[in-house]
Give the backbone structure.
Amino acid sequence: MIRTATAGDAAGVLAIYAPIILETHTSFELEVPPEEEIARRITSAIAYLVCDLDGRVAGYAYATRWRERPAYRFTAEVSVYVHEAYHRRGIANALYARLFEELRSRDYHRALAAIALPNANSIAFHERFGFTPVGVFREVGLKFDRWWDVGWWERAV
């Protein structure tokens, strides 16, 4: 079941996100934020959705403001994460489909996705979902004593 996330979902979100922070380069966070910070992010997002399977957060997707200047108010940055135990079950597709419905209902025009490179799976997923590449920022993130590039993809909402 896909539903709007609440602050009470913070622990479930962290169960997915913490290993990504600690073990991969795909998040540029260096330390796992406290549950209270995740709850704040959930409540401050444009839209934040979870896939709830039997009371467990199996995945989540969210949209945040891309930039603060008023002219950007119809552009969102989006992300989706699925717990590794639930990969390849269509959860990310379902989350993004619902997230884009939410964005359209709020008159958003463009969605952007930042992908830390390399990440062939995320690139393939986003491109299947209609995103097109628009550019790469070289060596903009330092994690695990290595510089990482970030690619940007976009699509109409």
